[in-house]
Structures are given as structure tokens and as C-alpha cells.
Amino acid sequence: MPKFSVIIPVYNRPQEVDELLHSLSEVNYTDFEVIIIEDGSHLQSEDICNGYKKNLDIHYHYQKNSGPGPARNEGAKHATGDILIFFDSDCLIPENYFTVVEKSFVDSDCYGGPDRAHESFNNIQKAINYSMTSILTTGGIRGGNKKMDKFYPRSFNLGIKKQVFMELKGFKKLRFGEDLDFSMRLIEKGHTSILIEDAWVFHKRRNNFKSFFKQVYNSGIARINLNFRHPGTIKMVHWIPAIFTIAYPVWIIISLLVPNTGWLLLIPPIAFLTHALFTIKEVIPSFLATITSFTQIFGYGSGFLSAFIKRNLLKQGEFNAFEENFYQ
InterPro entries annotated for this entry (predicted)? Predict the structure, then answer.
């Protein structure tokens, strides 16, 4: 059996670490180690990690705050496995995850898996999960069966041969989009990656609309920044939220001036609600999903447009937003 090294960067999330480690302690696979990299947290997880040493081969390391990319690189330095697996701290791992990966990850250098909502997640988390995975809001580029761009593994659920990871020199020191940059460099170097649809994780995501908006706004900025690092990687699917961000308010104005056109404004929310009801199968999260879908599209679209103007038109350098209060 292969030896997996599970690497988890964490910043001020001891409760999440506890829940993640609990899920790992219940998987039906034993040949793996867990490496926790505490990235300069003041709310630390060391005591929690020590509590799982009887059930897991777990190693805890503290470092000065450097960001998620360097934290993952630090974890790789301590890894003894042939395959590195990266999870975010807000994930829960199903019991058959490693057996699925062992069976499916054979001929490729890297894999990614999708994410979904656990039944215990609150209504906002379920709604955000919908908007972050729905074909209507993402074009399927985060791991759906049908997609409008090539699949790039994301760091919340990513596995890679250690030798290949070291060849790529790990993740760059980017605050946002570091996983996409990594996957793009992987493909540019001629390595192969696959989507393992059954290697999914439960992913909690944000817990309120404000923090979710900050996240997707920075994702829009990151997409422009990444295009400067990897020219030609922006596709039409990435422009759709920006176009919608401009077009929808314009149509609101038009509907006030032109009779019998306002009903067209109802098409997007009705589409989101209907699809969410069929997908989530719960009423309250589905109505909230309509809000989170608009939040995601307008957040991503406005971040994308802001970065396009600053970087392409004003010729400014790389930047992020909300750096001082991103976690507030």
C-alpha cells in the first residue's frame, strides 16, 4: 500500500482541527501520517493534536505566519510518504476516502477531488456550498462533471506524488490563488492531473455573507493576477461574472424606463432557487443559496473588474483586498 502524508495548514482554527482529526481517526485506512502546520496562530491546536496521538500518526509543527502556500511547503519537508495529500482545516474526510484514492490514483502525477456539504452544516454553509459548486455559478470548473474550462486541482483536496511536488518547488507565496498557480505550473511542466469524483470531502466554507464576499472578491482579483503569471489562462467562463455584474444593474435601470421588461430580472433568482431546491433538497438553504449565488457572482465579478482595470489599464502590480480585516 502507498504511504500517504496528509498536510493541513491551520490559522486560528482549533475547533476545525479537532473535527477534521476526528474524521481522520475514523477512516477505514491506516497507512498515512498527518502533519499539522500551525501558521503563526494565537489560537493554537497543539493540545488538540496531542489528544489524537493514540489514534493517528500525527506531527505538529509551529511556524511564523507565512500564508497557506509556505505552510504547505513546510509540511512537505516533514513528510515521509510517497504521496502528499493537502486538506484545508475546514474539511471533514469520509471514511472511504483513502481507499478510493488508492484505487483510482494510479497513472497520474496529481489528483483533485470535489467537495460537498455535510448534513450537520448550518443553512448558510449549505447555501455557500451550493453556490461554490453549482454549474450555474461556476461553470463546473471546481470539479463538476461538465465544465467550461480544464480541471485544476484545488488545495482543499489535492494529492500529488512527492517527487513531482519537490520538482515544482511547492506552492508560491501567494495569499490567494496559490493552488491554481500550482496546478497551472504542474500542467505547464507536462505533468498529468485527474479529477477523482469519488474522492470528495465535506467542506464547511465561510459562515456569513460578509466573509464569503471578501473571499470571492479576492478570487476575482486572483484570476487576473494569475493571467499575468500564466498568460492565456483566462477563458470566457471567467468573464461571465464580470459581465453579469455590469449587465444586471444596467437591466434594472432599463426596466424602470421600458415597460414590461422587469420580469427578465426574475430569471436568474428563479433559476438559482429552482436548481438549489433540486440539488440541496432543503427549503431554507435553497432560498439562502439564491442570495449566496448573487453574492458570489457580484463579489467575484467586481474583484475581477477591479483587478482588470488596475492591472491591465493602469499597469499596477499584484494586489489583494481586505488584507487587514479579511478574517473579521
Answer: Glyco_trans_2-like, Nucleotide-diphossugar_trans
